[in-house]
Amino acid sequence: MRTKLCIAANEQFGVPLNDQAALIADAGFDAVFYGWSPALHEHIRSARQAGLEVQSVHAPFGGCADLWLEDGEKGERALRELLMCAADCAKHEVGLMVSHAFIGFDKPLKPDEKARLRGLTRYGKLVAQAARLGVTVALENTEGDAYLDLLLRTFGEEKNVGFCLDTGHEMCYNGSRDLLAVYGQYLIATHLNDNLGVKAKDGRITWHDDLHLLPFDGIADWEQIARRLKKNGFTGPLTFELNTRSKPNRHENDAYAAMPIEQYLAAAYMRACKVRALFEKACTPGKAHTEKKILPL
Q: How far is CA 273 from each of CA 24, 39, 210, rounded to the nearest angstrom?
């Protein structure tokens, strides 16, 4: 059976999210994922009407730092958002939610003891509630590697917890460190995208480096990525998270924004097929971690 291909629906595409599913299906993709919102039920309905699987729901991430750094209402509000996302996943029979571990270059990139206790307590509540609902939580690499490390080392052996590798974040936020060499045993999902690494001459990392380019439009080594995914037993859909708008004062995505959405999705599907071909001809896989943790759709 061919490896399935999935793409994130995106407000940047210039078409209402409910109208994107049919276009995504027509382009050739098998699945889609959405960010959590009050209109999630409408998005999921449109996807299933178009014959697409709903691979996951991306949890809100604006308050992820508050989960660790805030004692009061801000931290509890961020937790409630994650719990509501898990509940909506269960309600709509989507077995996977993806959550950032942290956000914010202006925040401490390593937790102190108080932050550790806050974060582990709150994420522990999420993991427990998601397990009761039959939902798997995939923790994604962003800035603040230490927070992700703490979460995966604490909860990674839970049956409903795993790792989502974002290839672009790995390059620009994580210093191109091979995160699968550390967390490959937890791998259950991907966010595949390209970029140019860190642009600043002094090495300072900002969110402007996180371009979410089409594969092969940046400097990623896609043969190596495919080998690493296969080596770590990945068996899920190859999921692409891509942007059409350039970051402030940058122009790498401008050509995408100028394309009609049908043309852009055709280009995205072509690149996704190239990545799949590399993945399917890569070496024999290791032990699979994907299927046992995510509910069937």
A: 14, 30, 23
User: For residues 235 and 223, what is the distance between their CA atoms, to the nearest angstrom?
Assistant: 17
Residue 283's pLDDT is 73
CATH superfamily of 5-280: Divalent-metal-dependent TIM barrel enzymes (3.20.20.150)
Angle at 11 between CA 61 and CA 191, to 5 degrees: 55
Q: Collect all residues with Cβ–Cβ distance below 8 Å to 266 and sequence separation of at least 6.
A: 27
- Coil/strand/helix, residue 274: helix
pLDDT of residue 297: 45
Burial of 73 (0-12, 13-18, 19+ CB in 10 A): exposed
pTM of the model: 0.95
In eight-state DSSP terms, residue 213 is B
Q: Cα separations (Å) of 34 from 85, 89, 125, 203, 208?
A: 11, 11, 23, 32, 22
Percent of all residues in the chain with a pLDDT value above 70, rounded to a whole number: 95
* Token couple for 55: 């691979």
Give 67-93 as a DSSP string.
HHH-SSHHHHHHHHHHHHHHHHHHHTT
CA separation for the pair 258, 245 (Å, rounded) = 10
The token duo for 23 is 């276009």
Residue type, 220: A
In which order are the strands placed within the sheet that holds 96-100?
187-191, 161-166, 136-140, 96-100, 53-58, 31-35, 5-8, 238-240
Helices (H), 138-260: 145-155, 167-172, 180-183, 222-231, 254-257
HSE of 229, CA atoms in CB hemisphere, 13 A: 31
| Residue 41: its H or E element | helix 40-49
How many CB atoms within 10 Å of residue 204?
Answer: 10
Residue 240: phi and psi, rounded to 5, are -110, 130
